[in-house]
């Protein structure tokens, strides 16, 4: 019989001993909801340019009153969504089968 005692056990959230470190963190920032004009502008730019330069992202952020990281995240997420949509349209969505993690 094999003994697996030398493998470390998986830690689950319930098993984490010290929760006091969570209390010391600052509260989570509320989710940003784009205004209609911000959303329309970002989508219009995305149709023309999938990967705007850092300078262009800075300009967009200034014009729309957003942070540069927010604009960068929008384009990153938009590219991911358009890729997912393309995969779904072609019946090629292998995201689940490519995952190395499985839920038990």
From TrEMBL:
Q: Where in the cell is it found?
A: Nucleus
The keyword ATP-binding appears for this protein: no
Where composition is biased (Basic and acidic residues), the residues are: 11-26
Q: Which PROSITE patterns match?
A: HOMEOBOX_2
Gene Ontology cellular-component annotations:
nucleus
UniProt-listed SUPFAM superfamilies = Homeodomain-like
* Signal peptide bounds: none
**Where DNA binds (residue ranges)?**
27-86
SMART domains given in the database record = HOX
MF terms from GO for this chain are: DNA-binding transcription factor activity, RNA polymerase II-specific; RNA polymerase II cis-regulatory region sequence-specific DNA binding
- Enumerate the spans annotated as Homeobox domain: 25-85
What are the entry keywords? DNA-binding, Homeobox, Nucleus
* Domain of life assignment: Eukaryota
CDD domains the UniProt entry points to:
homeodomain
UniProt biased composition (Polar residues): 89-104
UniProt-annotated stretches for the region Disordered: 10-32, 83-104
Task: Specify the protein name.
Answer: Homeobox domain-containing protein
